[in-house]
Amino acid sequence: MLAFALTWNLMNDNAPPMASKPPLNADPEELRKFGDLAHRWWDKTGEFAPLHAINPLRLDWIAERATLKGARVLDVGCGGGILTESMAARGADVTGIDLSEKPLSVASLHGLESGVKVRYEKIAAEDIAAREPGSFDIVTCMEMLEHVPDPAAVVQACATLVKPGGQVIFSTINRNPKAYLFAVIGAEYLLRLLPRGTHDYQRFITPSELTRHTRIAGLSMTAMMGLHFNPLTRRYWLAPNVDVNYMIATVRDAG
Ligand code: SAH
């Protein structure tokens, strides 16, 4: 049957393509960018300094709404494992996934050095969702959605992965002139906090877009919070304004 279908497809230029896996929801250029910088991931003064600086803030925000100790946690787009390890250090049983190979190697090596146990795997959110639906108490997906072609599909995968009643936490960057000024011009060009080209403005996601994706996926929003940075004092803090960088906490509807 397969051989017949193959022959038929080869013979008929206009034949419909055979059913195949949908293309990977990833931008190879984005994955390469993070791969090229992977060796710098744990340098707190390097390109990933902002992630190190915001980590205690976002970790506490997550811990305020979800019990990390003893929870099964999945960190989607974990990169070099900054948040991943910190959640494991608070007693969670954490798996980190990403599609960029080198950050995952760096994350594994760092885990060996620090002694904090985390499982890392190179797999797409959609694929692990098909393999392990409803099996995590908490799913985190931070600073990742703005790097993927179809963020709604990742949101849906996160919703599939969490148990009913479980928490899914996202963070991303809003899309408006102020966000462009702060997250692209300010961070990449003026302050050089991030390498140029880290962010593509077109991929930024407004809170209403993100909450539409979560609603469609069966996730109800429970909280929203902005992440702020003062370039003069170099201080980061949380405040309700979500004009630029922000997080949302959601819970999967029961049943
Ligand atoms: N979540 C981490 C890292 C953010 S950097 C943190 O906040 O500390 C963005 C990460 O998303 C990178 O590691 C990049 O490789 C990953 N990424 C980009 N596109 C992805 C995709 N389609 N699937 C999985 N991970 C992806």
What features would you describe in this structure?
- The protein is globular, with a radius of gyration of 19 Å.
- The chain has 255 residues and is an alpha/beta fold.
- It has 9 helices and 8 strands.
- It has one domain (27-252): Rossmann fold (3-Layer(aba) Sandwich).
- The longest helix is centred in the first third of the chain and has 17 residues, at 49-65.
- An 8-stranded mixed β-sheet has the order 3-2-1-4-5-8-6-7.
- α3 crosses α4 (82-89), α6 (125-131) packs parallel to α7 (151-161) and α7 packs across α9 (207-216).
- Bound molecules: S-adenosyl-L-homocysteine.
- S-adenosyl-L-homocysteine (SAH) binds at residues 25-26, 30-31, 34, 51, 77-79, 82-83, 98-100, 103, 124, 142-144, 147-148.
Helix-strand blueprint:
Layout: H1 2-11, H2 28-36, H3 49-65, E1 72-76, H4 82-89, E2 93-98, H5 101-114, E3 119-122, H6 125-131, E4 136-142, H7 151-161, E5 162-173, H8 177-190, H9 207-216, E6 219-230, E7 235-239, E8 245-252
Parallel strand pairs: 1-2, 1-4, 2-3, 4-5
Antiparallel strand pairs: 5-8, 6-7, 6-8
Helix pairs in contact: 3-4, 6-7, 7-9
The site of S-adenosyl-L-homocysteine has 21 residues, from helix 2 and helix 4.
CATH homology superfamily: Vaccinia Virus protein VP39
CATH topology: Rossmann fold
First CA to last CA: what distance?
A: 39 Å
Compressed to H and E, one letter per element, the order equals HHHEHEHEHEHEHHEEE
Bound molecules: S-adenosyl-L-homocysteine
List keywords for this structure.
single chain, 255 residues, alpha/beta, Rossmann fold, 8-stranded mixed sheet, 9 helices, 39% helix, globular, disordered N terminus, binds S-adenosyl-L-homocysteine
